Amino acid sequence: MAETLHIARQGSGLPLVLLHGWGLNSAVWQPITEKLQDQFQVITVDLPGFGQNLDHCISPYSIEAIASEIVSTVDGPAVYIGWSLGGLVATEISTAYPERALGLVTVASSPLFIAQNDWPGIKPELLAGFHRQLAEDIEKTISGFLKIQAMGSPHVRQDIKLLRELIMEQPTPSRETLDGSLALLETIDMRAKLGAIKQPFLRLYGRLDSLVPKQVPELVTEFAQTSEQHVFDKASHAPFISHPDAFADVLLAWLQRHFA
Question: Is the pTM value of this prediction over 0.70?
């Protein structure tokens, strides 16, 4: 099948598709890719409008359209691993295209990111503030978001520095793309879809995450009762950046159990 998005492949074996979070690009996966490529085929994808797919625009910017673009590009079944917003995309692929998703791993993600009466999450005014800031200064907005992602990490300065160095390897997305993808975090509620996931499903969290509250993992278990979870006690929103060795150990052990 012809590729519609730019993707990168490293290694060989069972395909693992890695999807990044809001405002960033696939370069964030570089440290963990180096730990996986000896045993697996690692496929990193820039979401439409990000990184190497900066000029690949879709309208409307919907989770369904993003999922369709990705499965049209990845030629065959794979394990999907999604971080934050990428976790929503990976979940959509697993439910809408179950034959294409051998397994699902969500990292520091939630089926519902925005806080509601019955659900802990991001305060709506925080994301509204990001929309306003995007109109004034895109790079400042992304820099502020990096700080929030690393908040709580025992080595927050190093994490922010590494994240910034990695993502700056790629071009900055447009305001339109950032606004459209931010709206996904504000509006998507995938809780009802989780029960339909039949593939092996692993959920990874950081206990110190300021964007995915510590109550979320157990609440998600009620909707995805056959899934597995692991919480990194000293990590925040990017455990694969702050604790790459521990992250790789947990992920590799799970892959070995289900796909050896």
Answer: yes
